[in-house]
Write a structure and sequence with these properties.
1712 residues, mainly alpha, 10 strands, glycosyltransferase
Length: 1712
């Protein structure tokens, strides 16, 4: 910074003259980081205190670090006592401290300070203003202005610094605030330097006001501020945006900021009552300017995306027609009552001002939601594709769409409770009233804090506030709502409505003993929300009565109970939630066993025994009912009367029917044993069972089968049917209508019928029937010899022996259905992947086998996927057309296609090439490819006049040399030669391009006689080609000589133009002329050219080729360079790119072009979206110290990465222009040091990597918007679709940037960023650096500060803040919304998401973890993905879009590889099948949510402590229960890091298993298990908690089998039974005793992974990969993993203890 360039008043030790020491403010900031000695002063001005240079010595800080400590100690030894030292000694001590700090700065330049210094912005004291000073003053802006004008007038800069010091002193005289004393010390040292004039003169402060005023006038005149303001006014009135004006926006903002600071200082110095004429004149001028100059304030007003609080011409978004229409709609206050408005000139009053006045919403909440609503309306308008009017107006259709979507949950809630909505009818509500209601809901939601987790509570609040508002709107004058009026007469929605609810929730959360208390001991978020699921919630009154049960805080003996459900810790929840599954399995086992014991004969006797399933069915249902009664304990006091009535009725009914049916069946058995012909009881029994079954079937059909849903709704009109349906199925607000279309229903029913068709025959023939004969024999054996005294089996027909025999079989029977599901899902998933063209190309043999065995129709195109880099080369010709038809809007791809196929391909190539080139550039920026590889991979624009398609050079390298060899050896005709060349289509392209390019280049660089020669030459050649007589016209033996001359010519032309090079080009052309004319052409043509007089004279006179027209335009320069490479690159490019990650990315991207995806909309019409990343304290950016420190093995992170990524390290050094460099070499260059830190961080699981990846969305949208305007006719800058397109500056296009900002936002919720800044943590500096490098990045955090309550008690105040980087690179606060208290009442991550979700924008939100990555080529497909929200995916539109993940940590170790492959199998094949069966949930990131749907229904996760430890999946549960639809899409992928160390993997597995244990106890799983139809419930069970149940049963089965064998062996029965079997000749006994093969069927669970390998890698690679895993002992790892899951799952259900372990980002081993 320039502020520190003033001369140093005293020389440093050892110097002989006084010199100027450029001590930067950044250095001063670092100097001030330790705590200086305590100093107190009450001086309010700096005049007397800073007269002498030594005055700053009183503020001397202690330096930190080793160097600083040594210097300080040396200084203390030489210094006399504080009281005896003079000014000279103090000044000397100060200079010693400065020198010590400089030494420390040179020694340790890494870490947070280096990040700030390297950023080049935001350094200096302006960035070090303590929060306690910056919140209430503009000290920061004054210091920044002083820095900006230092070069113009150092004296004015000195005045500003002194005023800043005085303001700091007045605000905090005793320096008690955090960092205030350090700040004052640094500022004092800067002022000390400025006080010392170069000529040694004194400072006259009497003229400061006059000096400052004159400088203000001169600065304003020099910067043409008045002219700029007039231009802005014209711009605002015209409603159009100027690119030139947009480019000046940054400069204008800086000028305005400086002027504002000057005015503020002048106003303070003059005072309110100036005594002199100049002061009064200045004060009047200041007041006049402040009244009239709205632009001066408007341009400085912080904003997020649209400057709604004050107009600004520097922001292009505000000029878009849809945005102007939305703003105009919000500002339409014609039919609204009058209300006070005190914000003149900056903007017009609008409906948000009215709502703020009425309900007392916070200022920043209003500003935040004003922009949110404006953007929502604007984006809805843009999707209508309406023509742009002069005065754009918001369309009724757009408003209605937003209104219905935002208030959909509220409307359903009112309908469920039988309440009338807050308006009469939708048709009766006008457009303006709809916008007001939408604005009211968003304002309620935006300030609701933790109450946002209670969506129906928000509906209740909105319902009452909307009714209040309705009465106010009908009046002529608005008045504050009575519900929000506080005791002091002000209005505050937060204090009156939200805070009481929050305090109750906080008290309940404190009652959970940090998650250790039982769930039944406190109310969680669901309990609070479900209170509003009944009409009794209106007993709460309005505003909520503090003495109500709902707001009752828990006390020792008096507390409000749970609502509707109690999460008791017991395994019984598994039976209660999924009783239909267990009853089905038990009854089937009973029936199969009965049939087996009857030797498989089906007769009347067997049927009578089989009908014993009837009593069993009713008894099992009665057990479930008893569990309902028991597990509801703790909620009876608060439960609805209807719920308790249903429990009682069901209990009595099932008890009665169970007793009655059991009695009947006993009578049936008596009839059977009596052997008479009387079958009366049997007929009654069958009639009862048949009638009951018919009734259950009817109600099941009405509730579950889609075709009967209309009939079900019709039957609801009858109270009779309503009653029985209510008994059959509990009626909740959520979970209604969980049915799918007929097609989807049939799909998963058939799926499970196939599983049953496999499972039950297997169980009957291989599990049950083989045990029948041995069981009968063992029962009849009486003389068995026991090795011990047996007290059970001897007198009970060997009961323990039979139990040992049957127990493992029963256990396997209960869990093997999961194995059958696994097998069938692998088969179905594989077929779906093949049909969807996913993964790798299938070999011809394998494809034939698949088609023949599965009898499915797959075209060859479906099987031709990109398998390898060789396949990418071969199919590259088809990519442009696929890209244009898939990823380009229809307006571009549907343009008239030329009939000529080559012309059509060229048109598609012109669309494809800019995007392909940007992808290649991104790979180079990420150091996956080298400069040479980038040149070979880049594709020409294909927009010029060249008559053929130009492909990337990596397809054409060495083709010219091979063609030359073919030509030299040619002894046939021209057709035969061309036929031979055309066998390689890219060789044919290379030959054509070389010919046409040479012709065009030669014609463009010569004129006169030379141009005539070129024209005549190519005329002859073209005629010869047309007559098939080329071999007669030229001498092919000399072709290589012509090539060498042409290569020499292009080698000169690719360089910049100079006189010497022009002479060299002339010489090269003449040599080319000689070779072509006298050696290459046939003799007859040679003579013709030699006798051409015009050419002969020019040659003799030296005029031939003397005038060279150097190729300067971009297209021609590109063509010359390309021809040169085409002629010179000789080595094969078959393995380009060499990097495996680059190959994988390009293969997946090109393969996805042939997959089915929705049509892409233009950027202006696409669905807007936001990316949302929660962050706590993980690594942001690695520091140099972390990179260079050796671990216990003597290996540093940097050394490790250099060895595992040698090619990427070489590419990095090439990119920054270095050769082989050591760590010390990097420290010499701050910019290279920063680049190195980013290079390392981009290869770890860091926030920097995630931010870079997600910002690719913005880059892709800018590129797409920039090119769309040119393809559609050159709207901007006069380009047309046929002209050469240079995308070099697309990121600087104001229109493209604004369009991207309108459609994309990125919010990182850094929960403790404020605390990190206060303690100057390196993470804070790194986050600030990310903000500076990414202008569209927003950081939200929770700010904590000390406050005082109304009764004088010290309290903590919490605010949700959103910041961005301002024009100086410093944090600029956009919004600050006060919270009712500490927002962390539940789990940390969802609470972190919840506080920041109010700052998101758009219709969709993608949730991204901070260990994820993204790629530019995948970001180009986001428009297609978002269109899935409007696609046909069943009877409902999607609410969550599942996205494929690529696990990038698989190459670190074998453990990482196992984890990666296991994860990949689930996120691809597993989720593909789940979506197909309509039970896919949200299993984590990077799914895309329908933002409006979810924020109006509780958010994107649940946060109740412990029970929602796996917070992500509850978003899927919630979405499904609320009639959402979750899909899965695999044409787009996002990177994901996973754990790679054994300890981390165990912790992760434990966390997931523990989370599933908590899910077993949850109400969400219970309701889904109860409300899904039977077949959908089966899929849901076996893919969520059932997977862990089966895992646990696998382990238990082994124990059961082994303990059974131990019993048989130790008791001697094993030997005794075997001897009896040999004596009887019965082999069945031996077979039954050796049934361990059944325990080994778990090996089939590996089938999905194998199928995934085959689909993704191909058959041979899959076999090789699977064998490699076995050799690496993967079975040991998966056995360990299975045991870990079992332990944590069972322990959590019984004892709790599930928790999140922070394990992802702190270990070097996590690098990829």
């Amino acid at each position: 910074p320039r502020l520190a360039k003033a001369p140093n008043p005293s020389p440093l030790p050892g110097s002989t003259t006084t010199a100027s020491t450029p001590t930067s403010l950044a250095f001063e900031t670092r100097l001030l980081s330790p705590n200086p000695p305590e100093t107190k002063t009450t001086t309010t001005t700096v005049g007397s205190q800073l007269r002498s240079p030594a005055a700053a010595a009183d503020f001397s800080p202690r330096t930190g670090g080793a160097a600083g400590a040594a210097e300080m100690a040396s200084s203390m030894r030489r210094r006399p006592s504080r009281g005896g030292g003079g000014p000279g000694a103090a000044a000397e001590n100060w200079e010693r401290l400065v020198r010590a700090a400089l030494k420390r700065d040179r020694a340790g330049g890494a870490g947070a300070s280096a990040a700030a210094a390297h950023a080049g912005a935001g350094a200096g004291l302006a960035s070090a203003v303590p929060p306690s000073l910056g919140r209430t003053t503009n000290i920061e802006q004054i210091l920044q202005a002083a820095d900006d004008i230092e070069d113009d007038d150092p004296n004015v800069a000195r005045i500003l610094c002194e005023q800043a010091y005085s303001m700091a002193q007045n605000l905090d005289p005793s320096s008690d605030g955090r960092g205030v004393l350090q700040f004052k010390t640094g500022l004092a040292s800067v002022i000390k330097q400025k006080l010392a004039k170069k000529d040694g003169g004194s400072i006259d402060r009497q003229n400061d006001i006059e000096v400052l005023w004159n400088f203000y006038l001169e600065y304003k005149k020099r910067r043409r501020v008045d002219d700029m303001q007039r231009e802005q006014e014209i711009m605002r009135e015209s409603g159009t945006f100027s690119t030139e004006m947009g480019a000046r926006a940054m400069e204008m903002k800086k000028i305005y900021a400086t002027l504002r600071a000057l005015l503020d200082v002048l106003e303070i110095l003059v005072g309110q009552a100036p005594s002199d004429r100049l002061g009064r004149q200045i004060l009047e001028e200041i007041k006049k300017i402040k009244r009239s100059d709205a632009a001066l304030r408007g341009e400085l007003m912080p904003y997020n995306i649209i400057p709604l609080d004050a107009s600004s011409v520097g922001n292009v978004v505000g000029f878009f027609p849809e945005v102007r229409a939305a703003i105009a709609a919000i500002q339409n206050c014609e039919d609204l009552p009058r209300f006070p408005y005190d914000t003149p000139q900056l903007r017009q009053k609008d409906i948000f001002d009215l709502l703020q006045y009425v309900f007392g919403f916070q200022d920043d909440n209003v500003r935040n939601q004003r922009e949110n609503v404006a953007l929502t309306l604007a984006n809805a308008q843009s999707r209508l594709s309406l023509p742009n009017d002069t005065e754009p107006k918001i369309d009724e259709k757009a408003v209605t769409e937003v209104f219905c979507k935002v208030l959909d949950n509220y409307i359903k809630w009112c309908r469920f409770l039988g309440k009338r909505v807050a308006w009469t009818s939708l048709e009766a509500v006008n457009k303006n009233r709809k916008i007001i209601l939408v604005a009211l809901y968003f304002l309620i939601w935006g300030e609701a804090a933790n109450v946002r987790f209670l969506p129906e509570c928000l509906c209740y609040i909105f319902h009452n506030m909307a009714k209040e508002l309705d009465g106010i709107l009908d009046s002529s004058e608005a008045e504050p709502a009575k519900s929000c009026v506080t005791n002091d007469g002000s209005t505050s929605y937060l204090e009156k409505i939200i805070t009481p609810i929050y305090l109750t929730m906080s008290a309940e959360a404190n009652n959970n003993n940090d998650g250790k208390a039982a769930h039944s001991a406190w109310r969680n978020y669901d309990d609070f929300n479900e209170y509003f699921w009944s009409r009794s919630c209106f007993e709460l009154s309005w505003p909520p009565a503090e003495n109500s049960k709902f707001l009752r805080k828990p006390a020792k003996r008096k507390r409000t109970g749970k609502t509707n459900f109690v999460e008791h810790r017991t395994f019984l929840h598994l039976y209660r939630s999924f009783h239909r599954l267990w009853i089905f399995l038990i009854l089937m086992f009973q029936c199969l066993t009965i049939i087996a014991f009857h030797h498989g004969k089906i007769n009347i006797s067997t049927i009578k025994v089989v009908l014993s399933a009837g009593p069993a069915f009713f008894i099992l249902n009665f057990i479930e009912c008893c569990l309902d009664v028991l597990l509801m304990f703790g909620a009876y006091k608060t439960a609805r009367g209807f719920a308790i009535s249903r429990l009682v009725i069901r209990f009595l009914w099932l008890a009665a029917i169970s007793t009655f049916v059991t009695y009947l069946y006993v009578k049936v058995l008596d009839e059977k044993n009596a052997r008479n012909n009387d079958s009366t009881y049997f007929r009654i029994y069958v009639l009862v069972l048949g009638g009951y079954a018919a009734v259950r079937l009817v109600f099941a059909s009405l509730a579950k089968i889609p075709a009967c849903h209309r009939l079900s709704n019709y039957s609801d009109r009858s109270q009779f049917f309503q009653f029985f349906k209510w008994i059959y199925q509990e009626r909740y607000y959520i979970g209604r209508g969980l049915y799918e279309s007929i097609g989807n229903y049939a799909r998963y029913v058939i799926f499970w019928l196939v599983i049953f068709a496999c499972k039950f025959p297997f169980a009957y023939y291989l599990q049950i029937r083989p045990l029948v004969v041995p069981t009968n024999i063992i029962v009849q054996l009486h003389d068995l010899q026991y090795s011990w005294h047996d007290f059970v089996s001897k007198g009970n027909r060997n009961a323990l022996t039979i139990l040992s025999l049957w127990a493992p079989v029963v256990a396997i029977y209960l869990m093997d259905i999961h194995i059958w599901y696994t097998l069938l899902s692998a088969l179905v998933g594989g077929v779906m992947g093949a049909r969807g063209r996913l993964g790798e190309v299938l070999s011809t043999t394998y494809a034939f086998v698949v088609i023949c065995k599965l009898d499915i129709t797959l075209t060859c195109a479906n099987l031709m996927q990109i398998r390898s880099i060789e396949m990418l080369h071969k199919r590259f010709e088809s990519f442009p057309e696929a890209f244009a038809k898939t990823l380009s809007p229809q307006r571009i791809s549907s343009r008239p296609v030329p009939q000529d196929s080559e012309a059509a391909t060229k048109m598609y190539a012109s669309i494809f090439s800019p995007f392909w080139n940007e992808i290649i550039k991104s790979l180079r920026e990420e150091d996956y490819i080298s400069n040479r590889e980038m040149d070979l991979l880049m594709m020409p624009s294909n927009c010029g006049t060249l008559r053929l398609v130009q492909w990337p050079l990596f397809l054409l390298t060495s083709k010219i040399m091979l063609a030359n060899d073919y030509a030299s050896d040619c002894k046939d005709s021209q057709k035969e030669l061309w036929h031979r060349i055309s066998k390689d289509e890219y060789m044919a392209y290379a030959v054509k391009e070389c010919y046409y390019s040479a012709e065009r280049i030669l014609k463009s660089i010569v004129d006169g006689e030379g141009k005539l020669w070129v024209d005549r030459l190519f005329q002859y050649l073209n005629e010869s080609i047309g007559r098939d007589s080329l071999l007669v016209t030229i001498n092919l033996k000399k072709l290589q000589l012509v090539q060498s001359r042409l290569t020499g010519l292009t080698g000169l032309l690719i360089r910049d133009e100079t006189a010497d090079r022009k002479a060299g080009v002339t010489k090269a052309l003449r040599e080319l002329y000689e070779v072509v004319t006298h050696e290459f052409l046939a003799p007859n043509l040679r003579e013709e050219f030699d006798t051409w007089q015009l050419l002969l004279r020019a040659r003799n006179d030296g005029r031939l080729f003397s005038n060279i027209l150097w190729p300067n335009d971009l297209e021609m320069k590109e063509q010359v360079k390309r021809l040169h490479l085409l002629l010179t690159v000789k080595d094969s490019a078959a393995n380009i790119p060499k990097n495996l990650e680059a190959q994988r990315r390009l293969q997946f991207f090109t393969n996805s072009l042939f997959m089915d995806m929705p049509e892409a909309k233009p950027v202006s019409e696409m669905i807007p979206f936001c990316v949302f990343t929660p962050y706590y304290s993980e690594t942001v950016l690695y520091s140099m110290s972390e990179l260079c420190v050796d671990n216990e093995d003597g290996i540093s992170i940097l050394f490790y990465l250099q060895k595992i990524f040698p090619d990427e390290w070489a590419n990095f050094l090439e990119r920054i222009g270095r050769g082989e460099s050591s760590e010390e070499d990097f420290k010499e260059s701050p910019s290279d040091t920063l680049e190195l830190r980013f290079w390392v961080s981009y290869r770890g699981q860091t926030l920097a990597r995630t931010v870079r990846g997600m910002m690719y969305y913005r880059r892709a949208l800018m590129l797409q918007s920039y090119l769309e305007k040119r393809y559609l006719g050159g709207i901007e800058d006069g380009y047309s679709a046929l002209e050469y397109i240079d995308t070099q500056g697309y990121q600087l296009s104001p229109d493209a940037r604004a369009q991207a900002d309108l459609k994309f936002t990125y919010v990182v919720s850094c929960q403790i960023y404020g605390q990190q800044k206060q303690r100057k943590a390196p993470e804070a500096a790194d986050i600030a650096l990310l903000l500076q490098r990414n202008e569209a990045l927003r950081v939200a955090f929770i700010h904590e500060e000390d406050g005082v309550s109304s009764d004088g008690q010290a309290i903590k105040e919490y605010h949700s803040k959103l910041v961005k980087a301002d024009i100086h690179g410093k944090d600029q606060e956009i919004y600050s919304i006060k919270l009712p208290g500490n927002p962390k009442l539940g789990e940390g991550k969802p609470e972190n998401q919840n506080h920041a979700i109010i700052f998101t924008r758009g219709d969709a939100i993608q949730t991204i973890d901070m260990n994820q990555d993204n790629y530019l080529e995948e970001a180009m497909k986001v428009r297609n993905l978002l269109e899935e929200f409007r696609g046909n995916h069943g009877i409902r539109y999607p609410t969550i879009l599942g996205v494929r993940e690529h696990v990038f940590t698989g190459s670190v170790s074998s453990l990482a590889s196992f984890m990666s492959k296991q994860e990949t199998s689930f996120v691809t094949l597993g989720q593909r099948v789940l979506a197909y069966l309509k039970v896919r949930m949200h299993y984590g990131h990077p799914d895309v949510f329908d933002r409006i749907f979810h924020i109006t229904r509780g958010g994107i996760s649940k946060a109740s402590r412990v029970i929602n430890i796996s917070e992500d999946i509850y978003a899927g549960f919630n979405s499904t229960l609320r009639q959402g639809n979750i899909t899965h899409h695999e044409y787009i992928q996002v990177g994901k890091g996973r754990d790679v160390g054994l300890n981390q993997i165990a912790l992760f597995e434990g966390k997931v298993a523990g989370g599933n244990g908590e899910q077993v106890l949850s109400r969400d799983v219970y309701r889904l298990g109860q409300l899904f139809d039977f077949f959908r419930m089966l899929t849901f069970f076996y893919t969520t908690v059932g997977y862990y149940v089966c895992t646990m049963m696998t382990v238990l089965t082994v124990y059961i089998f082994l303990y059974g064998r131990v019993y048989l062996a130790l008791s001697g029965l094993d030997h005794s039974i075997s001897r009896q079997a040999r004596f009887l000749g019965n082999t069945a006994l031996d077979a039954a005793l050796n049934a361990q093969f059944l325990v080994q069927i778990g090996v089939f669970t590996a089938v999905p992974m194998i199928m995934g390998f085959i689909l993704e890698l191909g058959l041979m690679k899959a076999i090789f990969s699977f064998i490699t895993m076995q050799l690496q002992f993967c079975s040991v790892f998966f056995t360990f993993s299975l045991g870990t899951r079992t332990h944590y799952f069972g322990r959590t259900i019984l004892h709790g203890g599930a928790k999140v372990d922070m394990m992802c980002s702190f270990l070097p081993i996590l690098f990829v």
